[in-house]
Every structure is written in C-alpha cells, then in structure tokens.
C-alpha cells in the first residue's frame, strides 16, 4: 500500500492583514516547536505580507 501524508502535520497559514487562510503546509512537530511565519503573497491583499500559522478546524 502507498503511504499517504498525515493530516495531523498539516497547518494553515493566515494573512495578518485580511485574516484569510491562504496556504496549507506540512510541519514537522518534532523538530519545529515554534509557530511558523512566512512572508508570502496574499491574493486578497494583492501584496506580499506576513502569514502566521493557525490550527485547522474540523477535528
């Protein structure tokens, strides 16, 4: 059987300006203890802004 990526390692990245969740990334929780922060392009703001990690709902 083929291995699938675990959804428990999946986190969302939320724009700090418009508060929309634009990106989803996998996080190695054993190696990275802090919350992720990336400067990425927000299609709603139409510029590169800081995106911070948020939990995924639905669990």
TrEMBL record:
Listed InterPro entries: Ribosomal_bL33, Ribosomal_bL33_sf, Ribosomal_zn-bd
Keywords, in A-Z order: Ribonucleoprotein, Ribosomal protein
Domain of life of the source: Bacteria
GO terms for MF: structural constituent of ribosome
The UniProt record lists the keyword Ribonucleoprotein: yes
Keyword Ribonucleoprotein: yes
Gene3D superfamilies: Ribosomal protein L33 (2.20.28.120)
Gene Ontology biological process terms in this record: translation
GO annotation, cellular component aspect: cytoplasm; ribonucleoprotein complex; ribosome
HAMAP family: Ribosomal_bL33
Family in the record: Belongs to the bacterial ribosomal protein bL33 family.
Protein name: Large ribosomal subunit protein bL33
């Amino acid at each position: 059987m083929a291995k699938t990526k675990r959804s428990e390692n999946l986190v969302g990245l939320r724009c700090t300006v418009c508060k929309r969740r634009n990106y989803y990334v996998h996080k190695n929780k054993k190696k990275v203890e802090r919350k992720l922060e990336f400067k990425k392009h927000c299609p709603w703001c139409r510029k590169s802004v800081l995106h911070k990690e948020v939990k995924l709902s639905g669990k």
